[in-house]
Each structure stands twice: as structure tokens, then as C-alpha cells.
Write a structure and sequence with these properties.
Layout (H helix, E strand, L loop, with lengths): L1 H9 L10 H12 L4 E6 L3 E6 L4 E6 L3 E6 L4 E6 L4 E6 L2 E6 L2 E6 L5 E5 L3 E5 L5 E5 L3 E7 L2 E7 L4 E6 L2 E6 L4 E4 L5 E4 L3 E6 L2 E6 L4 E6 L9 E6 L3 E6 L2 E6 L4 E6 L2 E5 L5 E6 L2 E6 L3 E6 L13 E6 L4 E7 L3 E8 L3 E9 L5 E10 L3 E6 L2 E6 L9 H6 L7 E5 L5 E5 L4 E5 L6
Antiparallel strand pairs: 1-2, 2-3, 3-4, 4-5, 5-6, 6-7, 7-8, 8-9, 9-10, 10-11, 11-12, 12-13, 13-14, 14-15, 15-16, 16-17, 17-18, 18-19, 19-20, 20-21, 21-22, 22-23, 23-24, 24-25, 25-26, 26-27, 27-28, 28-29, 29-30, 30-31, 31-32, 32-33, 33-34, 34-35, 35-36, 36-37, 37-38
Amino acid sequence: MKFVGRAVCLLSFAFLSLQSFAADIEAEKARIGGSTESHWNFGPLFEYRRAAPGPSSFWAVRPFYSQVDAPASDTFACDVLWPLGTYHYHNNADWWRATIAYGDARDDDPTWSFNVFPLWFSGCDRKDDGYWGFFPIYGHHPHFFFMDDWDFILWPIWQSYSVKDVRSRAILWPLVTWRDEPRFGVGVWPFYGTATQRESEHGYVLWPLVTWASYLEDRDTSGAGSSWMFFPLYGQIRRARESQTLVLPPFFSYVRTDKATRWRLPWPLVDILHSSVRDRISVWPFYETIDGYPYADNGRKEKVEERTRRYGWYLVEDSELESDTTLETRFTVFPFWTSERRFSKAKDGTRTEVASYTRVWPFWSSTTVKGRSRQRVLELNPIRHSEGFDRNWSPFWTFWECWDRKDGRTRHSLFWHLITWHTGERRAE
């Protein structure tokens, strides 16, 4: 499987890629990890590292190719002219993306997929049954978005799919649709339609002008009652545990439930929510405040777990997230300043900082995890978690960089890795 992945990487120079976050994090851990290390650089153009355990290795010929190989963590990753092409292998599973083509496979079951969005898809499911499709001509897919066993011919002329073992069909979707029992429904859109959803029945005439629904008692929703709307003027919901009035929806509304109230005056400019687990006031795009609380049976707000303040629609954000064992804080003035800190909490209430991150864009960034730090000048990337970007492009503008090694020394590099040296004393391993 790894050989196939390497071949895909080397042939994918013209392909666009999106990164898998979890696999990228594993690749980055492998790239910077290890207790001993051999390190070669030729400016930003070439880099090679080798470290134990594993041994793991990283090398790059930028910006054309980079590769991480860490047998100890069963991780392999490579990028070709990132973001044009990428391949990841981790824990017996691999995936790759190349422009509009992408696919995945696993070593321990027969599933695999090959797709060229949005025209072609093919693969094999866990039952070892193959499937394929050429959109919009013909196709069968076992699991597509929220649909199971999706079939289509000259879409949207005809399609059929199931959701929770209920089959739905359409001719010239969405014009003519019907659905089997127990959630029977039929519609000739936009003139008339009716459908059953669990313990409720829904209908419309000249959608979206006139819609209505009736509800039976249900433990998972707001209880028995009814709703109707004459769009865009007025609508209302009256149920056992919910009352909602809408004027010129969705702009003006008032909602009251057994656990919350909410005002929109008008949406999205003013949005006010008070509930047993969250209080939120938003005056968009100027200001937003959020206070989150743990769930309590008595409905009392005895402890604040989340505090968030935003200004200028996410341009300035100050947040704090606290649990019984951790505390995370974040302050950003996008894109110029970012400060993140993570603490562990002891039973006596004392806090110990375990990780931090600071970025002054585009000049400098610093990352510290369990006492080991890494700093970089310049830092042109305004997004923190983008390891593929860092592996392949950041050395071209990294004037100076230093990071702590496990042997107790600090490694420095200057002038795009042309000059490197170590400071500190080596510890016995």
C-alpha cells in the first residue's frame, strides 16, 4: 500500500489537494519527534532529518516534494507541489487527493474509493460489493452524504435512495417525489406535498408560501401541538414545550421553551439567547458575548465553563474554556495577534501550563508544549494548524528558527537554514 501511495504522489504534480487534519498532525509529530537526529539543509530548497525511534525520517525538495516516514507510529505522508497533491498513510489506512481526484483504502477490510469530483465515483464497501457512477448519467453509491443505496439515471430525471430503511424516489427531482411507509410522503413541488416524519405530519401548498405541521407527543422533541406559516408575513409554533412567533421570518421572532428564550430583533443584527446551558447576546457585526454552563437538573447556573467575547465579527476574540481538569484561553486580533494557552488543573485548584502558542503576524511565532519550545521569524502563515503548508513552503521565508531538542540542547537556524548551530549542554540519554 505504501508503494502505491508513493507512486500516486510522484505522478500527481497537477492535482489539487485538501489535507486530513488528524493524519497531518501525526505526520507533523513524526517530522519533529525523535530523541537523536541527523539533520542536513541546503537553504530552504533541501532538508533531511533522521531520528529515533523508528527510525523516523523527513526530507523535502521544496517546493516540489516532501515526505515523512515514521514506522514507530505507522505513519507516512508526502506532498507534491502542495496543495496540488498529497498522500497519507496512518494506522493501516491511507488517503490521497490530487486536484479534483481523491480516494482512500484500508489494509484490514476490502473498502476503497476512487473519485473525480463531481463526475466519477467508484469503490468497494465492507461487504466487498463494488459500486460506481458517472454523474449525471448513471450511478449507484452505498453511502452518499445522508443517503444509503443511492441510485440515479440521467439525474435529476430519476433517483432513488433510502434513509433509515425508508425508500424515497423522485422524477425530475424535486418536482415529483414519493416515499414509502412508515414515513409515507408524496409531493408535486411547488404546488402540493405531504409527508410523515416520526410523530409529525407536514404539508405545503405553493411552497414556501403556505406550510403547516401537526405533532404528537414525542420524548425527543417539544411535544404535541401544531405549526403554520404564511411566508413571508407571519408564522407560529404552539407545542407542549415550545412557543414561537415569527414576523417577517426569519427577521423577527420570539421563542420560549421550558429551558430557553430567544429574541431576534431583527436577525442577524440582534440575537439574544438565554438558556440553562448558554447565554448569548449578539449585535452583529460589532459585538458578541457567550457564557456557557454545565448541564444541571435544577436549571441553576452555578459555574461558567465557557466565556467568549468577540468584536468586529471574529476580528477580535477573547475566549476561555474550563473543565474540571483543564483550562484553555485564547485571544486573537486576526490576523495580527494570536495567543493560546492550555493549563492542567489539580484537585487543589492549582494550575500548570502545559502548552502555549503566540503569533505576531507576519513577523514571529512561538509554540511551547510540555516545556519544549519552537520559535520562527518570519511567520507569514496566519493559520496555525496547516502542517502541509509548513512542510513545503514556510522555509522559504523563515529567516530564523530555533527549537528545543530532547537531548537538552536548542537548535538554531539562520538565513533559510543555511547556517545552523546548537546552544546548551547535551544531556545523557
